């Protein structure tokens, strides 16, 4: 007797057949990634307060929006191009200004980037490669950490993946319009993070030049046209700003000369490479913590101050480079790393991201006795060198599968006969993604300028794609031959050995290491019986520790101003240091409430709530009140946003009444305040600026 299936069972069966396994797997990866991005999201608070305050300012006028003003009064702009912040402002317009809303574009970019990467890798290497690529990217710690923040790197990576898709289309069709589309999208990327967007460009151009089946001369002409479009799109906003009279727009933050071109080639150009040049001694704004310059080791720059006793006490039982935290008298919690200030023998806790200045240089990795070095932010990224991505402190960001990517990627080059123009999908895939990965590895390993750990998100798509390509090629070979399975086992063993070594660098000894090793051994045993299952087990074994590290990244809650992967057991960052959900009340807890109340009550008839040395003191006021706050020195007090004459004029015109000032390099302003203004008694407060110096409130009318 034949049993007829019920209608619900039939529908379920037909639905499963209608949805391919690859689609189900891809949606599962995306759903898991979304969960990683959203878990414990309240802990990010205001995210990067500098950018969040800028979004608050941008929503108050079209001029602020276009020029990406850092505060509502439009005194100075953010030191980044506009597109990323424009997108954040659109989200904030509908959902309100808070840390989650301004980070949401990055979160969506991270999740939606998975199917984009899957489709591109699948085109050349098949479904298996695409799924592996998406999974690896989704489980890369720095990828998740950076997307859970309002720094614009997550959006930049998504735009660059879209550009890669356009270049693939140009290569396969030979049509100019796709090449121009790719160049246009890279130009948009430039307007998110400037020259960082150009890092994968050599790989994009190489794919088209060596892979498109059109004449060589035509390809050269097409690339020239694409480059012209790229330059026009990239510089369009910069030219518009620089052609606007300086008195009709904000001062261009961190530029040194009040031009976007100066910002591009100096602060966001040569400073990235060498730490010098135009604006090279100026700290990075927005994506960094405060600082002013890069003095020679052992020197104390003007205005440098001794580390506060709380900072020294925080490192009593720690070593140089260890994570640390301490509380300031005003209640603020400072998280960072232990470094050795010049001319001292005691370690002190320096705020996360603090460049080597203000009397507190970070130690060079491997330097004897923790001697100070000149590489900015070396407590995040170490010193330049070939092993930079394989050693502490950078190895925890995205390097977990890097050994397998390099080994399997090189071997996969022999997966097909080499022809020009390129015909084999494996060669096109490796030229694109291997070129992207290699360019970023070499660049970031070599630069001695400004380099933050979260910039490593730039390597996440390429890493996933190369791992997927290498694994898929071994998978194909493994169908009919024995040796690919053995090679896969060797590569997996080397990769897991590196993962264990890297984990131990951060004091991690967990059961997950044993799980990874057990899965690897099980895969090795299965090689004799079931090759495909063995290969999947080996892949799973390599994913165990990165998955653990990504999970700890979202639960241990490291510093959200400078997003980073889990710091390990050696660090002290943890859930206890999470900031509370972001609202006006929570924001006011981060500043002196008496001071805030006093300013609010006594400035209703003037434009500016207060003038402060930099955004480091001012962003909290903007987020707490939504009022204009004059950043006299831009992000970290180094810009000449206003002069003494400007301040005097503003006071005379009734625009400004109070100045909150701490000793620094603006001595002319200090002298003017002493001569023309009076100290407000009882409101001198511990500062939270670059030097943690006392801030004095002056009344100037």
Question: Can you give a write-up of this model?
Answer:
With 701 residues, the protein is mainly alpha-helical. It has three domains: 21-239 and 386-556, no CATH class; 309-373, no CATH class; 584-699, no CATH class. Helices cover 53% and strands 5% of the residues. It has 27 helices and nine strands. It has helices spanning 7-18, 21-38, 49-58, 62-67, 83-95, 99-125, 127-138, 141-147, 153-173, 176-193, 201-211, 216-242, 260-274, 309-314, 378-381, 395-398, 402-412, 425-446, 460-478, 483-505, 511-526, 531-556, 584-588, 593-602, 615-625, 644-652, 667-676; strands spanning 323-327, 333-339, 348-351, 610-612, 629-631, 658-661, 678-679, 685-686, 694-699. Strands 6, 7, 8 and 9 form a four-stranded antiparallel beta sheet that branches. A three-stranded antiparallel beta sheet has the order 1-2-3. Strands 4-5 form a two-stranded parallel ribbon. β1 (323-327) and β2 (333-339) form a beta hairpin. The N and C termini lie far apart (99 Å).
């Amino acid at each position: 007797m034949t049993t007829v299936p019920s209608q619900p069972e039939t529908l379920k069966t037909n639905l499963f057949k209608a949805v391919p396994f690859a689609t189900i797997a891809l949606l599962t990866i995306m759903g898991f990634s979304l969960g990683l991005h959203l878990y414990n999201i309240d802990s990010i608070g205001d995210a990067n307060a500098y950018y969040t305050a800028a979004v608050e300012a941008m929503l108050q006028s079209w001029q602020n929006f276009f020029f990406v003003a850092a505060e509502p009064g439009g005194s100075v702009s953010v030191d980044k191009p506009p597109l990323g912040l424009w997108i954040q402002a659109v989200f904030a317009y509908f959902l309100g200004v808070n840390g989650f809303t301004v980070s949401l574009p990055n979160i969506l970019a991270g999740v939606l980037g998975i199917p984009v990467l899957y489709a591109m890798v699948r085109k050349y290497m098949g479904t298996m490669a695409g799924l592996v690529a998406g999974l690896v990217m989704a489980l890369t710690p720095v990828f998740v950490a950076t997307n859970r923040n309002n720094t614009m790197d997550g959006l930049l990576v998504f735009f660059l993946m879209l550009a890669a898709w356009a270049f693939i289309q140009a290569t396969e069709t030979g049509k100019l319009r796709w090449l121009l589309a790719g160049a246009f999208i890279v130009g948009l990327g430039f307007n998110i993070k400037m020259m960082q967007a150009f890092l994968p460009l050599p790989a994009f151009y190489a794919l088209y030049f060596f892979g498109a089946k059109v004449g060589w001369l035509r390809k050269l002409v097409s690339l020239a046209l694409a480059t012209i479009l790229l330059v026009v799109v990239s510089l369009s906003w910069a030219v518009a700003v620089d052609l606007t009279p300086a008195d009709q727009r904000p001062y261009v933050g961190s530029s040194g000369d009040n031009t976007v071109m100066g910002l591009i080639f100096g602060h966001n150009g040569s400073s990235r490479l060498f730490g010098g040049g135009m604006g090279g001694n100026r700290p990075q704004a927005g994506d960094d913590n405060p600082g002013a310059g890069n003095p020679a080791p052992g020197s104390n720059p003007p205005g440098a101050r001794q580390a506060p006793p709380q900072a020294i006490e925080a490192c009593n039982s720690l070593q140089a480079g260890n994570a640390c935290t301490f509380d300031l008298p005003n209640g603020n919690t400072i998280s960072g790393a232990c470094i050795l200030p010049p001319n001292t023998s005691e370690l002190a806790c320096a705020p996360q991201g603090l460049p080597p200045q203000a009397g507190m240089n970070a130690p060079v990795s491997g330097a004897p006795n923790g001697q100070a070095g000149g590489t900015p932010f070396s407590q995040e990224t170490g010193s330049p060198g070939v092993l930079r991505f394989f050693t502490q402190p950078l190895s925890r960001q995205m390097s977990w599968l890097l050994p397998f990517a390099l080994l399997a990627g090189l071997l996969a080059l022999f997966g097909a006969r080499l022809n020009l123009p390129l015909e084999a999908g494996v060669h096109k895939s490796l030229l694109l993604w291997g070129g992207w990965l290699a360019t970023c590895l070499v660049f970031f390993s070599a630069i001695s300028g400004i380099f933050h750990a979260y910039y490593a998100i730039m390597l996440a798509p390429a890493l996933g794609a190369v791992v997927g390509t290498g694994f898929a090629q071994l998978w194909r070979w493994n169908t009919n031959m024995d040796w690919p399975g053995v090679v896969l086992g060797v590569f997996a063993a080397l990769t897991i050995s590196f993962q264990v070594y890297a984990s131990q660098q951060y004091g991690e000894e967990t059961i997950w290491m044993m799980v990874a090793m057990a899965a690897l051994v099980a895969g090795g045993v299965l090689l004799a019986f079931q090759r495909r299952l063995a290969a999947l087990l080996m892949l799973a074994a390599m994913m165990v520790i990165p998955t653990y590290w990504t999970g700890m990244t979202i639960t241990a809650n490291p510093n959200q101003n400078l997003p980073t992967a889990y710091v390990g057991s050696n660090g002290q960052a943890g859930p206890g240091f999470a900031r509370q959900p972001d609202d006006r009340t929570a924001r006011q807890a981060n500043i002196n409430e008496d001071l805030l109340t006093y300013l609010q009550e006594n400035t209703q008839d003037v434009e500016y709530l207060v003038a402060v040395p930099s955004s480091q003191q001012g962003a909290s006021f903007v987020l707490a009140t939504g009022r204009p706050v004059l950043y006299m020195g831009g992000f970290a007090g180094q810009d000449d946003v206003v002069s003494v004459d400007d301040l005097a004029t503003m006071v005379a015109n009734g625009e400004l009444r109070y100045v909150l000032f701490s000793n620094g390099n603006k001595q002319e302003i200090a002298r003017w305040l002493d001569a023309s203004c009076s100290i407000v008694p009882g409101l001198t407060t511990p500062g939270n600026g670059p030097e943690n110096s006392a801030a004095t409130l002056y009344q100037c009318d």
